[in-house]
Design a protein that fits this description.
mainly alpha, Endonuclease Iii, domain 2, Endonuclease III, domain 1, 2 domains, 10 helices, 0% strand, elongated
């Protein structure tokens, strides 16, 4: 993607969705952290179904610790990898209680020190809960970054660092949401819906798919 195309690319995404939001349901930074931790290799829809049952019962670090691994598993067993996620979430909750007064920390290093929290999860929490202009590269952003030519890279970190360089400052806060939603609903994995894509004029992908 040419540098001159980046501004209109994001301006078009912004015009269609001025205030994009995560599709995970949450009410507090801890609920967001828990939901993102549970969402690895799972759909937001599936996570929301589980947290709608879990959060009314336990939505603080201490409440998750009190619930324990087995108790937590009962609420999240519909989600893939639920056993390891239950262990991670209980351990992360214990660390929040013991080292952070039950509050979610606001730095990447402290977030990544929590069990089950990697760079992508930390970036989502920093962006969504605390308004930091981070780029959380999931499978959708990785695909869109490469396919469009906006931020080609062989690893999620490579794509993230290119996005940080190439996305204009005024679009950085919402950029990762626009790219996720674009990848989830338009620039889909198997056959992108180029025929109805508003940003296709700015995209490097050559075999544009026609309308069915």
């Amino acid at each position: 993607m040419k540098k001159a195309d980046i501004e209109p690319f994001f301006a078009t995404l912004e015009a269609a969705n001025p205030t994009p939001e995560t599709e995970l349901e949450y009410g507090t930074p801890f609920e967001l952290l828990a939901a993102v931790l549970l969402s690895a290799q799972a759909t937001d829809v599936g996570v929301n179904k589980a947290t709608r049952r879990l959060f009314p019962v336990a939505n603080t670090p201490q409440a998750i610790v009190d619930l324990g691994v087995e108790g937590l598993e009962d609420y999240i067993k519909t989600i893939g990898l639920y056993r390891s996620k239950a262990k991670h979430l209980v351990e992360a909750s214990r660390m929040l209680v013991e080292h952070h007064g039950g509050e979610v920390p606001r730095t990447r290093a402290e977030l990544e020190a929590l069990p089950g929290v990697g760079r992508k999860t930390a970036n989502v929490v920093l962006n969504v809960a605390f308004g930091e202009p981070t780029m959380a590269v999931d499978t959708h952003i990785f695909r869109v970054g490469n396919r469009t030519g906006l931020a080609p890279g062989k690893t999620p970190l490579e794509v993230e660092l290119k996005l940080e360089k190439r996305v204009p400052e005024k679009y950085r806060l919402h950029a990762h949401h626009w790219l996720i939603l674009h990848g989830r609903y338009t620039c889909v994995a198997r056959k992108p819906l180029c025929w109805k894509c508003a940003v296709s004029p700015y995209c490097d992908y050559k075999p544009k798919t026609p309308a069915p």
